[in-house]
């Protein structure tokens, strides 16, 4: 690092400056340091971004509590008699538990960056000319290259009453100190479904309002149907193909007026319609954007040579694991490489109870001129699923009929978030359904259902009756 240049106003020079210390940013910084670069990270909040602080990790901590509660409810069916079956969720203690986990991980990210010699600047970073980043409008640092990894923020919608203090963001709800008696979730996407199941398990009466014709509208239709049945079984009401017209308040809480003509009364609400890129870091620089997203090429480079972008700010895949890869590729290219980011086999997971996961194409996305077959293996036919009492799911494999290429895998059931990684890895390696059907899997496991579904897509499944 070169220190202050006389008369330039620049306090430090780096090979690479990363704006944002979330999944894309901190991975990019560490990768660049491993390649020998002098690196700075500018972070306005806490290292780790949305994922560690307000997303992936906190919600999984809550989900574990919900899983324990659901297990207690089912204990009697498994011959376990509980003398006092009542339970109470201590939300202050739950929040503290979540915060301990988050603190440990975010501290770990800081330690990793420091161990790799990355200099951390705490403050808001804004791009200026000549690859200069101004920190808190007071300090200016300059880089040979820059990576924009500013992440995303909660999306808002212009509905009358949406600004009520009782309408919470996904950030707010993770700090709530008591379980509401009733909760209406606006949006039936990934976060909405996870929160619906968490707070239903915690004891709240939950409604979900979704504009699209089905919940999880961007996942495979069989996954959506599975989730809708799951919510019905748990007495969670959902209203699909329905717009929220307005929110009003009365003495008991909130009143939601729906396009169907119905109304919902609820103590609290969660606004969960997704996230939008945080573009505040762009300043006056002519970085090209489209529909609120920073435009990048296959190498994560923006329209300005030497300035790259990675993670949520690009809108390519708003997932932490996709951001990891984008950040890594951006760092390598910023230092002279020419690598492309391959987003074809990025798994998507909804941490419901049980989980659902997908990778590749769903049936509606397969080109009309491409012949394909669908293999399904229901967990009702899985010895392990029956033994653990979680047999309502399935594994679905979409196979190209000509070559046996796996086009998509969709899983509902316990361990879906782990099994999907095997599917993604094999798809990336171009392993066919013919080959997967011949791979010996451990028995009894949930994972062997993937092998069975691949075999079923070829009409070769041993543990299912022949198709009529």
Strand content: 15-25%
Count structural domains. 3
Which residue ranges are poorly predicted, with pLDDT under 50 across at least 5 consecutive positions? 1-7
* Main sheet characteristics: 8 strands, mixed
Give the tally of β-strands: 25
Q: What percentage of residues falls in helices of 4 or more residues?
A: 25-40%
Structural class from helices and strands? Answer: alpha/beta
End-to-end separation:
70 Å
Radius of gyration: 24 Å
Known CATH architecture of the largest domain: 3-Layer(bba) Sandwich
What is the oligomer described by this structure? single chain
The number of helical runs is: 12
Would you identify the CATH H-level superfamily of the largest domain? Answer: FAD/NAD(P)-binding domain
Shape: globular
Describe, in plain words, how this protein is organized in 3D.
It is a single chain. With 468 residues, the protein is of the alpha/beta class. The chain has 3 domains: 8-154 and 277-334, FAD/NAD(P)-binding domain (3-Layer(bba) Sandwich); 167-273, FAD/NAD(P)-binding domain, CATH 3.50.50; 354-456, FAD/NAD-linked reductase, C-terminal dimerisation domain (Enolase-like, domain 1, 2-Layer Sandwich), CATH 3.30.390.30. Helices cover 30% and strands 25% of the residues. The protein contains 12 helices and 25 strands. It has helices at 23-34, 49-54, 56-74, 91-115, 170-173, 190-202, 221-233, 320-334, 383-388, 416-428, 433-436, 448-456; strands at 2-3, 12-19, 39-43, 119-122, 125-128, 132-135, 139-148, 152-154, 167-168, 182-186, 205-209, 237-239, 244-250, 253-258, 263-266, 268-271, 275-277, 289-290, 293-294, 307-309, 348-350, 356-360, 372-378, 394-400, 406-412. The strands form 6 sheets. Strands 1, 2, 3, 4, 5, 6, 7 and 20 form an 8-stranded mixed sheet that branches. Strands 9-16-10-11-12 form a 5-stranded parallel sheet. A 5-stranded antiparallel sheet has the order 21-22-25-24-23, sandwiched between helices. A hairpin with a 3-residue loop joins β6 and β7. α1 (23-34) runs parallel beside α8, α3 packs across α4 (91-115) and α3 crosses α6. It is globular, with a radius of gyration of 24 Å. The N and C termini lie far apart (70 Å).
């Amino acid at each position: 690092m070169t220190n202050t240049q006389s008369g330039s106003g620049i306090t430090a020079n780096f090979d690479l400056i990363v704006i944002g210390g979330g999944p894309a940013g901190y991975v990019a910084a560490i990768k660049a340091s491993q390649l020998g670069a002098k690196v700075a990270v500018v972070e306005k909040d806490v290292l780790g971004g949305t994922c560690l602080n307000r997303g992936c990790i906190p919600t999984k901590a809550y989900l574990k509590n919900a899983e324990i509660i659901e297990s207690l409810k089912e204990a009697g069916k498994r011959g376990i008699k509980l003398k006092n079956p009542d339970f109470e969720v201590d939300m202050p203690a739950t929040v503290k538990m979540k915060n301990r986990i988050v603190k440990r991980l975010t501290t770990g990210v800081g330690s990793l960056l420091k161990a790799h010699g990355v200099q951390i600047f705490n403050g808001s970073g804004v791009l200026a000319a000549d690859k200069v980043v101004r920190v808190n409008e007071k300090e200016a640092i300059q880089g040979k290259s820059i990576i924009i990894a500013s992440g995303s923020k909660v999306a808002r919608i212009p509905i009358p009453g949406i600004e009520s203090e009782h309408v919470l963001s996904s950030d707010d709800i993770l700090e709530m100190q008591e379980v509401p008696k009733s909760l209406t979730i606006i949006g039936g996407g990934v976060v909405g479904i996870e929160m619906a199941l968490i707070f239903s398990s915690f004891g709240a009466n939950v409604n979900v309002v979704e504009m699209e014709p089905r919940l999880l509208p961007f996942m495979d239709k069989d996954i959506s149907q599975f989730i809708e049945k799951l919510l019905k079984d748990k007495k969670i009401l959902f209203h699909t193909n329905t717009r929220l017209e307005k929110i009003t308040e009365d003495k008991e809480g909130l009143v939601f007026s729906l396009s169907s003509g119905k109304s919902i009364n609820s103590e609290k609400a969660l606004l969960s319609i997704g996230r939008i890129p945080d573009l505040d870091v762009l300043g006056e620089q002519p970085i090209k954007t489209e529909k609120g997203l920073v435009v990048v090429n296959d190498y994560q480079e923006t329209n300005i040579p030497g300035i790259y972008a990675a993670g949520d700010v690009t809108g390519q895949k708003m997932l932490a694991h996709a951001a990891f890869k984008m950040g890594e590729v951006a760092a390598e290219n910023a230092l002279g490489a020419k690598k492309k980011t391959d987003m074809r086999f990025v798994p998507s997971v909804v941490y419901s109870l049980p989980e659902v996961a997908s990778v590749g194409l769903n049936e509606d996305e397969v080109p009309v001129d491409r012949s394909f077959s669908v293999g399904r293996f229901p967990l009702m036919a899985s010895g392990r699923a029956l033994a653990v009492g979680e047999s309502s799911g399935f594994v679905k494999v979409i196979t190209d009929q000509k070559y046996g290429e796996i086009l998509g895998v969709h899983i509902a059931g316990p361990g879906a978030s782990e099994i999907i990684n095997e599917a993604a890895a094999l798809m990336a390696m171009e392993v066919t359904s013919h080959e997967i059907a011949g791979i010996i899997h451990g028995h009894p496991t949930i994972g062997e259902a993937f092998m069975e579904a691949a075999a079923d897509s070829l009409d070769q499944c041993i543990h299912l009756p022949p198709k009529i």
